[in-house]
Amino acid sequence: MFRFFVRRVIGAAVILLIISAVTFFLFYAIPRDPARAFCGKICPPQNLILIRHNLGMDEPLFVQYWHWLVGIFTGRDLVQFGQCDAPCLGYSFATQESVFSAIIDRFPVTISVTMGAAVVFLSFGIITGMIAAWQQGRPLDKIASTTSVIGASLQIYFVGPIVVFFVVDSMGLLPRPSYIPFTEDPLGWFVHLLIPWVVLSIIFTANYTRMTRSVMVEQLAEDYVRTARAKGMSSRTVFLRFAWRGAMIPIVTIFGVDLATLFGGAIITEQTFTLHGIGELAVRAVQNTDLPMLLGVTLVGAFSIVVLNIVVDVLYAFIDPRVRLA
Amino acid sequence: MTTVTWDREPATPRGPGPFLSVRDLSVQFSTEDGIVHAVDRLSFDLEKGTTLGIVGESGSGKSVSNLSILGLHDKAHTKIGGEIWLEDQELVSASRSTLERLRGNRVAMIFQDPLTSLSPYHTVGRQISEVFRKHKGASKAESRARAIEMLDRVGIPQAKTRLEDYPHQFSGGMRQRVMIAMALVCDPDLLIADEPTTALDVTVQAQILDLLKDLQQDFGTSIILITHDLGVVAKTVHNVLVMYAGRAIEQGTVQQVLREPHHPYTWGLLASMPKLNSNVDLPLLPVRGTPPSLLNPPSGCPFHPRCDYRDLVGPDLCSTERPELSPADGHRDACYLTLAQKREIFNGKIKERL
């Protein structure tokens, strides 16, 4: 177990290093000069040079990247903005706020949106898929399968405004989506995020329904499931304890892969419902050619996905005794 | 590689009525290509404490007919006709809950590949004890003790500690022992073994067969042994049923069928077996042709397209009318050749090749 963690942490560090480097160097492939944005409308060339120097942009790219990287661990002194304590991700070119504290502020919003949606689509998708597999070939299965094809094509930015119009504006069933910290008002947190969760999870629910159904049907044809039936286990036990156990493995695998898609979906969801999360930061950073913010958001997004994937790998060992963490 | 050897005298104890009686069993699957006649009017009896070997090529209906004893076929696509009597209980028409109470309890089954047939997600101890708990209402501790006893009984060393192991931590032979322990945990009256040794190497195969024989002597279990290996048949069974295209084509005691077979297909089966003491340059003699499609089985005797002797019977009898098993008792076969002809052909041409 310990060796597994050491190996995975080293692997994760290498991945994060590569992602940040690629983002950093790609940024400079964009033909835009962030120093110009600081300089104002009338910009004498000597000012521009000074700003570039203060931003550290007159140094070679590799040196700049190195400073940025070291800054995360040791903090650094930025001429333009002053002292930046570790973990230092720099200051936004656009808003001059600290990238790290901006991300920390907004992190709970994005985590609430994504994890809440994950709970919604995992429970609904898996339950519907299991019902469809149980009722294989019968009307309920056909309804579930057809609905999931429709659901899989409902996009967030299309469904979101419609749901808000009916549920919030016309019927007044739920408040307009916004973020209320869980620690302040758990119930408020829940009702204000319910619409974003449901809307973000529609496509996922549909996909997990279809996937759960097909892996369950596959598992039910396995030899060991037949053995369980031959032992006289009731059909419910066979279904829930034997077939479901085997079906969990592909579902967990796909969930690991889907995490990145889920964060992508969160960006669209935050835009659709004007929630102030990391997704919104990311979109703004791209629009403003805001390198420190872009790097910070990318790094934090990648970090979350890498950590959650380690969690998924640990889950494997619990589900399947043939997997040993070594 | 196996050879037919005799290592026991025939023993066919007879009870008052047959313990298991299969009457005119038909199994049909509906598939996209049409209806598969997997089993066609199959009848056989099994006496208490004896072993019946069912022999035949792949797709001859051996496994299917036995899965239907336990109702393990796919109900949505299968049509079953005929009757299966286990003592005074009819099984084809039995309810799901009746069958569930029966499975693993009075009738148990072991399968070909113990690796895929055991759950990889549960310890062997749990897989064995849950059967005992379910059917005998035993407590956790009782069923655990019973599982240890069974593992010990089938010859797994350190049964107590191995209880916590998962199937992938056992070797192939040990896994099949686990499977047998699981099947016998409730002292079933009938054990259906579907090619139990096919996935094992020869030495382990012999151990497993010996184990089955010992257990039968101790518990008086009746066994149906499904196999395509005639060596296994010779070693373990009392009676033999040869199946072809979903039908029984020859039936008798193991000596009768192996020493003096009557049906041309049985001759072919025996002649196609490799022998240890024969010349290695001598080619094997396969049964001519390929097994028939069960979507559209041949008319008359299903073996007639592959049979070398059908001209002896007459111009079209074999291809038009289905031969029934005859005589009514003892060594029976479904072939129109006269007994004298069968003896003559067998003694003249076939025997030397065996």
TrEMBL record, chain A:
PROSITE patterns: ABC_TM1 (PS50928)
Transmembrane annotation, as ranges: 9-30, 109-134, 146-167, 187-206, 242-268, 293-319
A UniProt-annotated Pfam family: BPD_transp_1_N
Membrane association type: Multi-pass membrane protein
Cell compartments where the protein resides: Cell membrane
UniProt entry tagged with the keyword Protease: no
Domain ABC transmembrane type-1: from-to ranges: 107-316
Keyword field contains Transmembrane helix: yes
InterPro entries named among the record's database cross-references: BPD_transp_1_N, MetI-like, MetI-like_sf
Keywords: Cell membrane, Membrane, Transmembrane, Transmembrane helix, Transport
PANTHER family found in the cross-reference section: DIPEPTIDE TRANSPORT SYSTEM PERMEASE PROTEIN DPPB-RELATED
Entry similarity comment: Belongs to the binding-protein-dependent transport system permease family.
The protein's name in its UniProt record: ABC transporter permease
Organism of origin: Sphaerisporangium corydalis
Taxonomic lineage from the root: Bacteria, Bacillati, Actinomycetota, Actinomycetes, Streptosporangiales
From TrEMBL, chain B:
Keywords, comma-separated and alphabetical: ATP-binding, Cell membrane, Membrane, Nucleotide-binding, Transport
Membrane topology: Peripheral membrane protein
ABC transporter domain: residues covered: 22-270
Gene Ontology terms, MF aspect: ATP binding
InterPro entries found in the cross-reference section: AAA+_ATPase, ABC_Ni/Peptide_Import, ABC_transporter-like_ATP-bd, ABC_transporter-like_CS, Oligopep_ABC_C, P-loop_NTPase
Xref: Pfam families: ABC_tran (PF00005), oligo_HPY (PF08352)
Domain of life of the source: Bacteria
Regions crossing the membrane: none
SUPFAM superfamilies, alphabetized: P-loop containing nucleoside triphosphate hydrolases (SSF52540)
Main location (coarse class): membrane
Compartments, as annotated in UniProt: Cell membrane
PANTHER family for this protein: DIPEPTIDE TRANSPORT ATP-BINDING PROTEIN DPPD, OLIGOPEPTIDE TRANSPORT ATP-BINDING PROTEIN APPD
Family statement: Belongs to the ABC transporter superfamily.
Protein name: ABC transporter ATP-binding protein
The species this protein was found in: Sphaerisporangium corydalis
